């Protein structure tokens, strides 16, 4: 997977390198993300920008930590031929102030928290969700935890490794 990373108002880390490592780890736990044709755009931006996106596209008038906007349906993704032109998987946007506050509350680095949120966004783009049932949420959390372990980040949910 190729990542197009745009950084606004985020400093002090190699965000492009982080996204590349996270994308490789996510592809190890979700094979559909390993398709070499896939491209994802990741925007590291402000709470104000994410608030605007959330209001415009999700009708929620507040910022949130991460938003994901899929361009492919899960069925199309899993059946995507590996040969052919690039295919946009979707867009992910992270809100700096919210992410920084959450990282501080959790006692983790901003980079580790951002890595978790990018994994979370990628899994959403691959068709995973966590809102319909506890089982669905547990399955997605297990994938996130496993992907993060591949890049040396501990379980973000504070439980024993799954």
TrEMBL record:
Species annotation: Tsuneonella suprasediminis
UniProt keyword Aminoacyl-tRNA synthetase present: no
Main location as per UniProt: cytoplasm
> What family name appears in the similarity comment?
Belongs to the endoribonuclease YbeY family.
GO CC annotations?
cytoplasm
Q: What does this protein do?
A: Single strand-specific metallo-endoribonuclease involved in late-stage 70S ribosome quality control and in maturation of the 3' terminus of the 16S rRNA.
Superkingdom of source: Bacteria
Named cofactor requirement(s): Zn(2+)
The protein's name in its UniProt record: Endoribonuclease YbeY
Q: Does the keyword ATP-binding apply?
A: no
Q: Where in the cell is it found?
A: Cytoplasm
> Which terms are listed as keywords in the entry?
Cytoplasm, Endonuclease, Hydrolase, Metal-binding, Nuclease, Ribosome biogenesis, rRNA processing, Zinc
Q: Which InterPro entries match?
A: MetalPrtase_cat_dom_sf_prd (IPR023091), YbeY (IPR002036), YbeY_CS (IPR020549)
Tell me the residue numbers annotated for binding Zn(2+): 120, 124, 130
Q: What is the lineage of its organism?
A: Bacteria, Pseudomonadati, Pseudomonadota, Alphaproteobacteria, Sphingomonadales
Annotated EC: 3.1.-.-
């Amino acid at each position: 997977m190729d990542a197009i990373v745009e950084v606004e108002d985020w400093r002090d880390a190699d965000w492009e390198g982080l996204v590349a490592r996270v994308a490789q780890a996510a592809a190890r736990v979700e094979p559909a993300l390993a398709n070499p044709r896939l491209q994802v755009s990741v925007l590291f931006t402000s709470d104000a920008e994410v608030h605007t996106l959330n209001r415009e596209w999700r009708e929620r008038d507040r910022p949130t930590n991460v938003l994901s906007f899929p361009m492919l349906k899960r069925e199309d993704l899993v059946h995507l031929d590996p040969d052919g032109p690039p295919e946009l998987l979707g867009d992910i946007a992270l809100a700096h102030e919210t992410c920084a506050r959450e990282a501080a509350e959790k006692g983790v680095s901003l980079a580790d928290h951002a890595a978790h949120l990018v994994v979370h966004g990628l899994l959403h783009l691959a068709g995973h969700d966590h809102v319909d049932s506890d089982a669905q949420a547990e399955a997605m959390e297990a994938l996130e935890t496993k992907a993060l372990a591949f890049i040396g980040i501990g379980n973000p949910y504070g439980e024993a490794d799954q």
